[in-house]
User: Fold this.
Amino acid sequence: MRRTPGALAAAALLALVLLVLPLVALLLRTPWTRLPELLGQERVRDALLLSLRCSLGALALSVLLGVPLAWLLARSRFPGRRLLRGLVTVPLVLPPVVGGVALLLAFGRRGLLGPLLVQGGAVPAFTSYGVVLAETFVALPFLVLTVEGALAGLDPRHEETAGTLGARPLRVFLTVTLPLVGPSVAAGAALAWARALGEFGATITFAGSLPGTTQTLPLSVYALLAEDPPAAYALSAVLLVVSVGLVLALRTRLPR
Amino acid sequence: MKRLLAALLLVAACSCGGQDEQQRLTVFAAASLSESFPALGALYEKAHPETDVVFSFAGSQSLVAQVLQGAPADVLVTADEATVQAAAGELAGAPVVLARNRLALITEPGNPLGLRALDDLARPDVQVVLAGPTVPVGRAARAALEKAGVSVEPVSEEPDVKAVVQRVRLGEADAGIAYATDLAAAKGEVDGVALPGVSNTCSGGVLRSSEQPGAAGAFLDLARSPEGQRLLESYGFLPPA
Assistant:
């Protein structure tokens, strides 16, 4: 093994401390013995279930809409494609609260589509659908970019062969392309789900915060921190464990 | 490479702000004081030019949680008795009452749904936002609703009173319960009526961890002085009982 310069090692160590110490502190303060009782509280259980439902909804939407978008970006040639790809990445770096404001201006009662939504009786603000919408907004790009990268790196000959054998494009996509990029779809889905599960800013801004309806785990942690800190630590620990589980799953199950 | 490193370090150092010798008085204040306290701060700075007063406004329950976690502040002013009592262990003395406040029913401009009293909030076509049950204004609103025998299912529970006003101002909700002072502050952007009866008291104290308890105490004294009281009154607050 080569010797690491001392200055680099020190900086690297500092970085590790910065990243790991807060997580250790959280685990140390988590009231493990009270965990069953805390997680059994109706409000906490509601938040857990709501988070699960909404994040899975956002995941499903992300896959259903994201894979076709990734395909469009990777396979089609049309003017403005690069601009479009840039736009898709914006929610990745946009502060989530800004995303929430933007969603409000688009889908809120007074938003761009507000009158239409009011007429249709489907205003998403303050509903669980609003949460799904906000979570999809932030999660979708993770899936699109992951899958698009895989599609771009795919050897086109498989698809061409299937095409010359007479398969229609949609059939080629479903039976050849999709299985080939399956692992990347799974990886993108895991990232998208994690992002949706952790969503805070866009959700509280766009969908509000009501226990059982729009108060997901992160919102609940935020509210509980002022009311019942041990319960907030317990919920945080749950989210941390889920995140670690996801990281492990991504490392072991998927090709590098 | 070295230069890059130096530049990065410089950025890191600057971004945390090296202060000059100006003294900094940090005041944690309830969201309902967002308009009046900056004016009070300006008054204080005029009398003490060597001091910068900086504010952190949030729901009282959040401020108390931050203080209990050791947030560095000099003064804490919350919007009700329960929150200030929750922080009593961190205060240098008994909390003092600075002002009192009334609740107000907040509606959209022009009050298109004709909401005039608490009963109207129970109508099924009215989307109501309240502050959360541990936020002072949320607690007071629930007490007032209960006293009036009105049952309301809010569509959202907001973390502070300003967020309640904001939902109504943006038209996302039809009505909310905030303070009379918030109604006055958002005049023109929302309508509403003040509800009878005093609901909450704004009280505060100097934090034990303050490194400048003298200046912190002087700020609270200013708030209670005739000049400070006149200023608070001009924002719609009632004098301490």
Notes: The mean pLDDT of chain A is 89. The longest helix of chain A spans residues 42-75. Chain A touches chain B through 20 residues (CB under 8 Å).
